What does this fold into?
Amino acid sequence: MIGLSANQMVGFIAQQLMRPLNHSYLPNLEKNIWPALQNPFYDRGARYTVPYVVWMDGIGWRNDKIGKDIAGMKVPWDIFWESKPWTGKVGLLDDQRDALSMPMQRDAIRSGRVPDLNTDDAAIIAKAGRDLAQLTSICNIKVTITDYQTLPEAKTWLHHSWSGDLLSAVLYYLPKGTKPDVLSFWGPDANGVVQNDLLWVLRKSKKPVLAHQFLNFMLDEKNAYDNFVQFNGYTPPQNSIEGDALLKQGLIPKSLTPAILRPDQFANNQELLALSVAGTNRWQDAWSKFKAG
Amino acid sequence: METRWIWRVLAVPGVAWLSLFFLVAMYAVLSVALGNQNTLNQPLPYWNPLDWNVGYLFDTVSNIVHNGPFLKVFLRTVAYVVVAMVLSIAIGYPVAYYAARHAGRWRGIVLLLLVLPFWINYLMRMLAWINLLSPGGWGTRFLHDFGIEALFEKLGLLNQDGGWLNGQASSVVIALVYGYIPYLILPLYAALDRIDQRHIEAARDLGASPFAAFRRVTLPLSVPGILAGTVLIALPMFGDYYTNDLISASPRTSMIGNQIDEYARQGSQKTIGAVLTILLAAVLLILMFYYLRTTRKADLERAR
It folds into this structure.
């Protein structure tokens, strides 16, 4: 199976859907994958999962339309609260956890705190919802996950983005005549959101050995690179894939090297994890209230 | 007697189909809405009516009654659907009227043109609108060149030149009209086509002007067609969420369908999604009863 993230794992394990992995079939895990993800905190000893792709939450923008050094701002997230001039061209990720954690990060940077992006605290969650609601008044923000297409086509100019979307944008969605370096990305070095999709095997799989071989195939250096460049756009956590090398290859412009997540960033940022039932409902209620306009 | 029996048998597959795929599905939604959630936040339907839990229903109704976000979205949805219905009738009635009464030998082609949109998937038509209404798109240029854009800006329905996709309520309503209007025109055409020409001739013989004949004969006789058409488009419009998602995506234009989608498909509280579905169905049921009552009354008057 492809496409499980760490915050869904608890439920899957509780429902006994996942099969423990046999690492003797997965030599590429140790050979190619970031050491930290060979023994991640959410799945000690990679007992059930191997990593597929990694990404971070950040800001994607058209630097030919937005004349600001967003990466150089003291609090880059502030750009969304200064986006009145670009009303109608500003987007927010249509995902309650990612979106609500953005104003939480902004508050934390402003006050010099480390945010808890997996908080259950009703007051913090409600404030994040109210902060997002301000964006509706400021720039009539659009709530979408199509920035990989709208940014290169200049239908949006500033977007709360997953790093992989900017890479997809430059790899697949640039209109003819548009230069790749019109796109920029910034993501925090620490205390922001990082995520990874996982590969795993169903407990009732009828061909578990074949499933393991598929996982190992996807962890192969060349296959992972091809899957990233030709199909997916999201970076696999392979030791061999890093921003400067991709820049030298001419695959991505310098303005998008920050979209290639580094192991140290992965370690210093936070993953969005499963919450308590009450906490989950608080996040959803705040999100629903914001989306009601 | 024998003929009546055959028709009853022939109705069985349709009734069975509806029972299985509508009533059973609706009961499932009701059981989720009046059920609970387990410790993993998964819905726990209560199939036995004796066990039904009205807590989520009361919470949601209370949110609406106490001016919570659901009320705002409900009212916005009603406003969009009413405006879209009025526009659809204003645009669709003359088209249906022309096709039914004046198209002559072109009638076949006109009907073909009316049916053409059904050949293309609704989502594809909406995706096409995204390109048409993008800055520099053909649609945007047309609206600009013919002064429609300037008119909308003057009326406060558009925030800037070429800004049709900037989260505008007007764009959502226009897209709803575009998407659903064929469903209004066809029953309206059928109703207008069924009107006995002799009624109109009688009105004219009795001294009515063409306009008076239309107002006093054609229009009243076409009311069942208008009602059928409006019911056909109002029902899907009320539950629509993808038109807003594709054309606007702004929270300012979100409709009740978007909230249902948020809760039922993406979120952790699927029970609230089910409750919203039931409440929306209850509102639509009122409209449906009004439609049935009006058409029944019209049938009785015709039979007299």
